[in-house]
Amino acid sequence: MRETELQRIAELQAEVDQLKEAMASHAVVDQAIGMVVALGRVSPDEGWEILKEVSQHTNIKLRNIADLILVWGRRGDIPPDVRAALEDALDRHGPVQVPGSPRPAPAPSEAD
Q1: What value does the CA radius of gyration of the chain take, rounded to a whole number of Å?
Q2: Which end of the chain is more exposed for a tag (fewer CB within 10 A), N or C?
């Protein structure tokens, strides 16, 4: 084979490897969006926005945020800064609180 053919094969193999990684990342992100949708009672588009916000506010790659959310779903632990960013994003987009978070005290009623 000529040098250009070998180089083209190497380029194509690198592209295939990148596509495989992208597919794996996409699946993880989609699963995390599903968790956020179920947790926050938000739309899938809002779930995507929430993941992006958490990624931006924590300066952690979105794929890694998705991994952390999936691990949290299995084991129940999540880094405090990620949890805080997730709670903030859910507050902006959804009506519920992250499970396991302390509940705020109810506001006093006007009858009191």
Answers
A1: 20
A2: C
Tokens (6 digits) for 34: 């599903």
What crossing angle do the helices spanning 44-58 and 3-40 adopt, rounded to 10°? 110
- Spell out the residues 6+ positions from residue 103 whose beta carbon is closer than 8 angstroms to its own: 97
Instruction: Provide the 8-state DSSP code for 60.
Output: -
Q: How far is CA 69 from CA 2, 37, 50, 77, in A?
A: 48, 12, 12, 9
pLDDT digit string (tens) for 42-91? 999 999 999 999 999 999 999 999 999 999 988 989 999 999 999 999 98
Its pTM surpasses 0.70: no
